[in-house]
Design brief:
With 390 residues, the protein is α+β, with helices and mostly antiparallel strands. The protein has eleven helices and 16 strands. Helix 7 links the parallel strand 6 and strand 7. The structure holds pyridoxal-5'-phosphate (PLP).
């Protein structure tokens, strides 16, 4: 064990206050009293499935919290992303610009539309898609034909950009929006990880025409599985509800569907869990911020490593905490992962860059220098909300 790895392990043990053989998960859900109460109400009344009051309440509370006009709950975050892309009219054979450093769901959603992911490099200060790099890249590869952006090399239409707020840290949205306006690109935010994260005082998910949230078990709050589409556009919200509920025309008994829709609605029992979890969100966020501050303080004077903190324009939810190894220590990453996991402290690397996966290997992409370097130097730390009270 190198002195470097030893030092990191000790620092983590000190922050997490661990004892031998105790396992510290990467991210655990946390439930209070109302989770039991609301789910029991679903069971007692029989409203567990596709109808019931909790879906509506959850949607209203989500819109209220995120400051968006509308929220449509979905069965998971991937489904929300898929429908978001449909809502901005991504068509088969279109290209959609997404970061190479993201969870596979971002690219999968693009392919569900028979469109093609086009990978963009990351920004070191945000860990997300880099607007400046995208701008100069589009200058080289994109032609504007009327109000359409066309990839000069593939002749395909470039329809949309999907930034992802990595581990809860917001992308620099204003310059990105400028690029979108200049090239007539639709903006869809993958806000799956950023519930509770704000950009210049406004909640993430307010910049795109439609944005996707996730409430999977490992996210900042969970509905078991679940997601939502948030938007400020009434027409888009109506269409989102329609597409996620099999495109059925409301009628007391007739089954009339006016297009191919999806069975993507969130069951009432999951929404009940979500309502209870949302009540705890302010506390979750406070706990996470305190934990992040502890990590930051502890790693401040450790050589060769940096604890990632929110960019100046953002208030992050610190969903998953991040350490970044200096170039010189990058080769220690695997040792560190091994050592910490052996000691019961669950750490994780970043996702493999998507163009390294077989199904996306042939997708168009720009130079991915920063994403490559982040992928090799980034480590996620245990981040559950109950870690600081032990
Ligand atoms: C979690 C996540 C999603 C959606 O995931 P689901 O498990 O389908 O809810 C999408 N994108 C990113 C970046 C995510 O982290």
């Amino acid at each position: 064990m190198s002195p470097f790895s030893q030092k990191i392990l000790q620092t983590l043990q000190q922050v997490l206050n661990t004892i031998q053989n105790q396992v510290i998960p990467l991210h655990e859900p946390f439930f209070f009293k109302n989770e039991w109460e609301y789910i029991k109400e679903c069971l007692d009344t029989g409203w567990v499935s596709s109808a019931g009051k909790f879906v509506e309440i959850f949607e209203l509370r989500l819109a209220e919290y995120t400051g968006t006009k509308y929220a449509v709950a979905t069965v998971n975050g991937t489904a929300a992303l898929h429908v978001c892309l449909k809502l901005v009219d991504v068509q088969p054979n279109d290209e959609v610009l997404i970061p190479a450093l993201t969870f596979v769901a971002t690219a999968n959603a693009v392919t569900y539309c028979n469109a093609i992911p086009h990978f963009v490099d990351s920004n070191e200060a945000t860990l997300g898609l880099c607007p400046e790099k995208l701008k100069s890249y589009l200058k080289d590869i994109a032609d504007l034909q009327g109000k359409q952006c066309v990839n000069r090399f593939t002749q395909r239409r470039v329809k949309a950009v999907v930034p992802m707020h990595t581990f809860g840290h917001p992308v620099d949205l204003d310059p990105l929006l400028e690029v979108c306006n200049q090239y007539h690109l639709e903006l869809v935010e993958d806000a799956a990880e950023s519930l509770g994260s704000f950009y210049k005082g406004k909640h993430t998910g307010n910049w795109g025409a439609a944005s996707a949230l996730s409430f999977n078990g490992n996210k900042i709050l969970t509905t078991g599985g679940g997601g939502a589409i948030i938007t400020n556009d009434e027409e888009i919200a109506k269409l989102a509800k329609h597409l996620t509920t099999t495109a059925k025309i409301p009628h007391r008994w007739e089954y009339v569907h006016d297009q191919i829709g999806y069975n993507y609605r969130l069951p009432n029992i999951n929404a009940a869990l979500g309502c209870a979890q949302l009540e705890q969100l302010p506390w979750f966020l406070a706990q996470k911020r305190t934990l992040a501050e502890k990590y930051q303080e502890a790693f401040e004077h450790v050589e060769g490593i940096r604890f990632f903190t929110e960019p100046g324009f953002a208030t992050s939810n610190y969903w998953l905490n991040v350490l970044i190894l200096d170039k010189y220590y990058m080769s220690e990453r695997n040792n560190l992962l091994q050592l910490t996991n052996d000691q019961g402290i669950m750490t994780r690397p970043a996702w493999n860059l998507l163009h390294h996966l077989p199904m996306f290997a042939d997708c168009p992409r720009m130079e991915l220098e920063v994403a490559e370097s982040l992928q090799q130097s980034l480590i996620n730390l245990p981040s559950s909300v109950n870690l600081i009270d032990k």
